[in-house]
Write a structure and sequence with these properties.
- The protein is built from 8 helices and 3 strands.
- The protein is mainly α and 176 residues long.
- It folds into 2 domains: 125 residues, Rossmann fold; 33 residues, no CATH class.
- Strands 1-2-3 form a 3-stranded parallel beta sheet.
- The longest helix is centred in the first third of the chain and has 15 residues.
- It starts with a helix and ends in a 7-residue tail after the last helix.
- The model has no long low-confidence stretch (mean pLDDT 90).
- It comes from Hevea benthamiana.
- This is NBS-LRR resistance protein.
Length: 176
């Protein structure tokens, strides 16, 4: 991809960011996720920060009960939740009610490859959608040379094949 997860991970792991939020959780939503498993994961990550065991009966809680537990836990607390790789609006809608809009400066960061998901998730703040673009030809060439040849240039006898490889990568850093 263009590096969405990498950028968000840099923000999430930044020590200043960690100090700003009382609670942080990172959730990866694969294309075929199990709602209950991910809700339990969120609960466990939140309680882990307090060094407390997860609530009794977490394994038998319904999805609704888990959402209520998360919402209750996060009330009155500043939190950062990352939902990584959200594939569709249904996935976002499954989780959004678990997170209270508690006016404490909390944030939810969501990565997605689909612009309609980003727009739906940011209805209250449409100016907070950031699109990452592929690298320019020059940026892709520089990155490719640094990674492949550990230099800013390519050996002349490999330039043609290097350009063919770059063409296939379409400026996507992960492909380079």
């Amino acid at each position: 991809g263009v590096g969405k997860t990498t950028w968000v991970k840099l923000v999430y792991e930044n020590s200043e960011v960690k100090k700003h939020f009382m609670f942080c959780a990172w959730i990866v939503l694969t294309q075929y996720f199990k709602t209950g498993d991910l809700l339990k994961d969120i609960v466990q990550q939140l309680y882990y920060v307090l060094r407390e065991p997860s609530p009794e009966g977490i394994d038998t809680m319904s999805d609704h009960e888990l959402r209520v537990e998360i919402n209750k836990f996060l009330q009155q607390r500043r939190y950062l939740i990352v939902l990584d790789d959200v594939w569709n609006n249904d996935a976002w809608n499954t989780f959004k009610h678990a997170f209270p809009n508690n006016k404490e400066g909390s944030r939810i960061l969501l990565t997605t490859r689909r612009s309609e998901v980003a727009k739906n998730a940011s209805i209250e703040s449409p100016d907070k959608v950031y699109a990452l673009n592929p690298l320019s030809s020059e940026e892709a060439w520089t990155l490719f040379c640094r990674k492949t040849f550990r230099s800013n240039s390519c050996p002349p006898h490999l330039e043609n094949v290097s350009q063919q490889i770059l063409g296939r990568c379409e400026g996507l850093p992960l492909a380079l």
